Amino acid sequence: MKLVLLGAPGAGKGTQAVRIAEYLKIPHISTGDIFRKNLKEETAVGLKAKAYIDKGQLVPDEVTCEIVELRLKEADCKNGFLLDGFPRNLQQAKALDKMTSLDKVVNLDVDLKALAGRLTGRRVCDKCGESYHISTKKDEVCDKCGGKLYQRADDTLETVNSRLEVYSASTAPLIEYYKDKGILVDVDGMQSIEQVFESVKKVL
Predict the structure, then answer these.
(1) Annotated catalytic residue: which of 37, 94, 152, 201?
(2) φ and ψ of 6, to 5 deg
(3) Is 13 a catalytic residue?
(4) Active-site position among 13, 71, 118, 123
(5) Among the options 19, 48, 50, 88, which is catalytic?
């Protein structure tokens, strides 16, 4: 199954993506992960991206699309994949249409105001990347690996509000785009992690 997972920052995409990918036995493709891999391995496209990152600029759509396209050509994507963090805008969505056809686009529907509180309370492990929330996690030690928890720079209130504005402007129009194609399914992202996952399984 070829899937895209949509949702505002903090909607729980990362958490659900891991579960869905395990459930369907398909690779979870996070654009952040493949960017880091290409940068680390200094691939041709990774070096292209690095040139922009080093100048503090956004990586242009065509370079992002090239990185994703190369990843989708790898053998483990033969039976499907789950894209998380791509496409981020209509230009990327149209580029993705040329690379492959999608079965479903799952949109984690959330209240943006409630999200701000969810994001600013998020804490991440500095070793394994596991996420927690201060509402349920009172200490600063990761349950998984014992690493130290910290607040990401992009989880401060000012940055969160800015990220949500960017999402509303560029990524939200994708909801209409995929709705028009008849492949969008909405899932209530304000439920508990388990309830969201059960809802996703039902729509798939």
Answers:
(1) 152
(2) -110, 155
(3) yes
(4) 13
(5) 88
Amino acid at 39: L
Phi, psi dihedral angles at 12 (to 5 degrees): 100, 20
Verify whether residue 118 is a known catalytic residue.
no
Tokens of 204: 């798939």
Catalytic: 36? no
Ranges of H-type helices in the chain = 13-24, 31-41, 44-54, 61-72, 90-99, 112-120, 157-166, 173-181, 193-203
Alpha carbon 152 to chain centroid, angstroms: 16
Half-sphere exposure of 44 (CA within 13 A, CB side): 2
- Closest alpha carbon to 132 in 6, 14, 1: 14
pLDDT digits (tens, 9 = 90+) for 37-61: 999 999 999 999 999 988 888 889 9
pLDDT score of 53: 86
Residues 6+ apart with CB under 8 A from 83: 3, 4, 5, 29, 31, 68, 96
The yes-or-no answer on residue 163 being catalytic is yes
Strands, sheet with 149-150, edge to edge from the N-terminal-most edge strand: 131-133, 122-125, 149-150
β-pair partners for 148: 141
| pTM score of the predicted model | 0.82
Instruction: Give the three-state DSSP class for 56.
Output: coil
Report which DSSP code applies to 60: P
| Residue tagged active-site, from 2, 71, 122, 123 | 122
The identity of residue 181, as a single letter, is K
